[in-house]
């Protein structure tokens, strides 16, 4: 039995070390359902999150190259004259999602990790087209990932309102980004629908 126990612990250790844990989110989002499935990218992607109270958050998925985060915050700091310290810029690497206006960003990045978790972020201003701050986050992201494929994801709560979604899309359009993916929850394909018929036909072909 001893060899089998050793093997079991080795397999368990492998899965523990190889598993990627889901990063914490600033708010709980209940996404609408969809019958189409596509794996969420783990890098080279920007995610814009809209919660049920229509607060907007910005996050970057870039596991391979943390320098991308440095380039984004450096660009924001220069464009908005925020006077961020080196420590505050470094803190941006550890922030999963930003949901504060530029006027509060310096104070937010100066907080400890525990204090940041306690803060209820008010969201990035987007409703006024003249002061749509999401535009700048997207613009600096494009500069940081210049020459690479960058995907844009929108994750909205099912209770969020259309004007906020329209403002998010407007920020993308102003950056000449017209393609984006919507993050949804996976639902079953309705029985008898056209998609159900196509999938059923494909299943019969595979069995043959």
Structure report:
With 208 residues, this protein is of the alpha/beta class. The chain has helices spanning 2-18, 67-80, 86-91, 102-109, 113-118, 134-144, 162-174, 194-207; strands at 33-34, 45-50, 56-61, 151-156, 181-182, 185-186. The chain is built from eight helices and six strands; from the N terminus they run αβββαααααβαββα. The strands form two sheets. A four-stranded mixed sheet has the order 3-2-4-5, covered by helices on one side. Helix 7 (162-174) links the parallel strand 4 and strand 5 (181-182). Helix 2 (67-80) packs across helix 6 and helix 6 crosses helix 7 (162-174). The longest helix is centred in the first third of the chain and has 17 residues, at 2-18. 23% of the residues are buried.
How is this structure best summarized?
43% of the residues lie in helices and 12% in strands. The chain has 208 residues and is α/β, with parallel strands linked by helices.
Task: Furnish the topology, listing elements before pairings.
Elements: H1 2-18, E1 33-34, E2 45-50, E3 56-61, H2 67-80, H3 86-91, H4 102-109, H5 113-118, H6 134-144, E4 151-156, H7 162-174, E5 181-182, E6 185-186, H8 194-207
Parallel strand pairs: 1-6, 2-4, 4-5
Antiparallel strand pairs: 2-3
Helix pairs in contact: 2-6, 6-7
